[in-house]
Write a structure and sequence with these properties.
about 210 residues, alpha+beta, VC0802-like, 2 domains, six-stranded antiparallel β-sheet, 6 strands
Length: about 210
Amino acid sequence: MTSITRRVWRLIDEDPSIRKDLARGIVNVSGLAAYLKEHGVEGSLDSLISAIRRYKGSAEVESLNEGVSAALKEAVVSTKTRITALHLKNSTNLYKYLSELMRDPEFYKSEIFRLIKSRNETLVLIDSESLSRARNFFPEGNIIKVDAGLAELSLTLTKRGWSSKGVMARLSSELANYGVNILVILSAEPRISLFVAERDLMKAHEAALSLTRR
């Protein structure tokens, strides 16, 4: 197998949309070859066309794709709106402020409360109505910025779905196809939560539902 063929087949294996359309026989092979060439695959158009026509998905890849499709079909999709991200600068006192916030009865029972720590900052995701109250727990010097107008798209997977490889890759690829930028990703069995701009939630929801129906 030539290096061109391997490159073409690998790119097809990595793109579920192209694989699906090839299986259906609805791909313009010349157009796909031109697309691959524009995206850095070296070789003549004829050699790319030949590689595409000879493509057959490996049994391992096909089995993986079938597992991902089954996992997404069994998933339950849900959404939440009016979420705000509070970006906090890490400091020696930050954990004290956070512990006080988490002991507050209003936040303890809140459905929207996510906490993510990175090297330089800590991100707190809360419902927008609680923003003013939450800010009172932190000195202004600790608050880097506030991102309002976020929404959460969640997929609750079955146990089998959770153990399937490639679910997150398929999901993020589909949202990208719909023009949706994922701002934050959180996952803990059995749920994957994607946070997007609220204006993109309808497209994100449509993309997720399209995966559960295939």
